[in-house]
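Catalase (Pseudoduganella umbonata), 488 aa
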Amino acid sequence: MSQPPITTASGIPVADNQNSASAGPRGPLLLQDFHLIEKLQHFNRERIPERVVHAKGSGAYGKFTVTHDLSQYTKAKLFSAIGKETETFLRFSTVGGEKGSADTERDPRGFAVRFYTEEGNWDLVGNNTPVFFLKDGIKFPDFIHTQKRDPQTNLKSATMMFDFWSKAPESLHQVTTLFSSRGTPDGYRHMHGFGSHTYSLINDAGERVYVKWHFLTQQGIKNLSAADATRIAGEDPDYAQRDLFNAIARGDFPRWTVSVQVATEAELAAWEQRTGWNPFDLTKVWPHGDFPLRQVGVLELNRNPLNYHAEVEQAALSPSNVVPGMGYSPDKMLQARLFAYHDAQLYRVGTNHQYLPVNAPRCPVHNQQRDGAMAFANGGAEQNYHTVQAGGSGVRGLGNGEPALALDGAAGLYDPRGTDDDFTQAGNLFRVLDAAEQQNLFDNLAGPLSQVSDEIIARQLGHFDKADAAYGAGVRAALKKKKGRNVD
């Protein structure tokens, strides 16, 4: 099959795509050879900056189908009728590794879902774990630096990681999850997803409830042993990408049951009074016994992207994207991410990234944003400012019918260290693991801990002891076997 004629990006036919214009047969080359210059310029810019976190990912399109009525809690139109379908895009990822890292590394997995609703894009940007290492976004850049490379050696450093974790006991719940078998899921299809943060829903009456989102895999949970994860990293570092793409290509569409936990502000206040746990703390879960799951719908992935760069690498999601009938919460990590994600996309992809097909909403858009790089939808001759509409000074809530959010306390820098309970829920997680899973946890922790100083080991063991005495004892035994000496 013959190829179409080569042109420049402006559509101008190219006379010769094999030879540069030169001064004589041996050169030098001529600056006027625009095709050569354009070709090299574009080649040099083929890679947009990779994500600082979640750099390596896989994506697919699908649909969300409502199976249960949620109208008593939200007026969002995508939930307006049982059986209603909404187009979706889901990007999976590892968190700490670079774009070329292995899919099976011990790491949380990103689980970022975009719903293309008739009221705009709703982005639920979560992970495969219901909690995270931190409760305040001001620590996030420091934490991520510990997961990257040592500035001198350019090597991953167990010392950096455990120095941070051992001084931040709030991380223990997620550390326990990470070093269990859940830290190495068997591909993307066999893991749960979570919104992780607390969000809110608002109904037609302007009533707010708080929710946590859960995506429970219908394929069943499967995890890799540490040995298998290491082996596959060498044999097929793109294991999860290959598995997801091939499953969809053969019609084996992965599905997740979508559920929510729901609580009123009064119910959360009573729960906090009873447990001492801040319900908006990202290092904590809402126990299902206190807040049972309510099924909402089913998410199915059924279409692979045609071009990875255009549709996965340039996908730009942000938790700030919520639609009418939805809102946020006082979760400090969420509040930081509402700014950070969109700001990162402005830098990484560009000012007008929302106009790219994978990011563009499936509904009309009208605003006064203009210009900037690649402003290919620039408003034409329309007025480039919004006409001022004077109004009264009464409280109008937060927009789209969401009621005003009551604030409590004086503005200040609040440090919860030493007062928050960072150990009970981590201990609860440890105690639900069977004996074999507990031993895997001990062994997985002993590997990197054996590379750090005794001072750091002692701090981290102290956290394990507070979660459960058997937790600390098990890690000590595994370390003794690994290091060949006592670490008490």
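Residues 74 and 203 are 4 Å apart (CA to CA). The chain has three domains: 1-46, 57-355, 424-483. ok done for today
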